[in-house]
UniProtKB/TrEMBL annotation:
The protein's name: Peptidase C39 domain-containing protein
Annotated Gene3D superfamilies: Cysteine proteinases (3.90.70.10)
Domain Peptidase C39: 56-187
Any one GO biological process: proteolysis
Organism: Acinetobacter indicus CIP 110367
């Protein structure tokens, strides 16, 4: 009764994303002591993909979503994309915004100034972007479209960005230099003691597959001839003695051994 009251039932309130699993610790012990139960919290992959990013609501709103991401993740504001869009329309070049259906860096600068902060758009080399040591909005030309993303960091030859459309992604250094539009960056000046690190790199950001690895597995040469692989498969199969019923075979009517391989078909 004591075990049933203390171990069999989990009376503590659990997070809705909690999954509990049980594993055997030592089968030599009694069943009351050999089981270990561990609660594990899981979450959809998409949630981590857009961690710290304000996802753009419209196909033309990458600028407002990128600015909101930068303000919330680096300055510490709690703006929604709709609030940022309203501010950009109010303090930016309204007529031109409507005409081109997009926001410019000048619109961003005016809105940030209305919030009481200094900011500006600059042009520089890739080394200048890295030396800043802070996130910045950068325009890129990618997949046939002009797009705004937030540069997060550079590490080990890769550039990590917060993309309002695709989430947390990365480019190798050379590829980023190719898509970076006009070497332009937009920075917000924030005193070091007030900076937030919500856009800092995490382990999940660096779980990428190197291009060289993809190429290696995509174009790897066959190491063994097919007949050798068949021979290995035959050794692992079941042998059955059967009569050859193929009238076109030279061994018709004779008994011979057949190798029966087991295949698994996924539904």
């Amino acid at each position: 009764m004591y075990y049933a009251a203390t171990q069999a039932f989990d009376l503590k309130e659990q997070h809705p994303e909690t999954v509990r699993y049980t594993e055997t610790l030592d089968s030599r012990n009694s069943s009351f002591t050999r089981m270990h139960r561990e609660p594990v919290r899981i979450q959809p992959a998409l949630q981590d993909q857009f961690r710290g990013i304000v996802r753009q609501a419209y196909d033309y709103s990458c600028g407002s979503a990128a600015l909101t991401t930068l303000l919330n993740g680096y300055v510490g504001t709690r703006l929604t994309e709709q609030q940022t869009m309203s501010g950009l329309l109010r303090y930016g070049e309204y007529e031109r915004i409507i005409e081109r259906r997009s926001f410019s860096l000048l619109d961003m600068k005016r809105f940030v100034a209305a919030l009481g902060m200094e900011s500006g758009g600059y042009r520089g080399e890739f080394s200048d972007l890295v030396k800043q040591g802070q996130p910045a909005i950068v325009p890129i030309f990618y997949a046939g479209f002009k797009h705004f993303v937030v540069y997060k960091a550079y590490k080990d030859g890769r550039v990590y960005v917060a993309d309002p459309a695709l989430g947390n992604i990365s480019f190798d250094e050379q590829r980023f230099k190719e898509v970076w539009e006009n070497n332009t960056l937009f920075l917000i000046n924030v005193a070091p003691e007030y900076r937030k690190d919500f856009l800092a790199l995490q382990d999940s950001d660096m779980r990428h597959v190197e291009d060289a690895t993809v190429n290696h597995h995509a174009f790897v040469n066959i190491q063994y001839p097919q007949f050798y692989m068949d021979k290995i498969a035959d050794k692992a199969s079941t042998i059955r003695l059967e009569r050859n019923m193929n009238p076109e075979s030279e061994n018709f009517g004779e008994h011979q051994y057949n190798f029966l391989r087991l295949y698994y078909k996924s539904k």
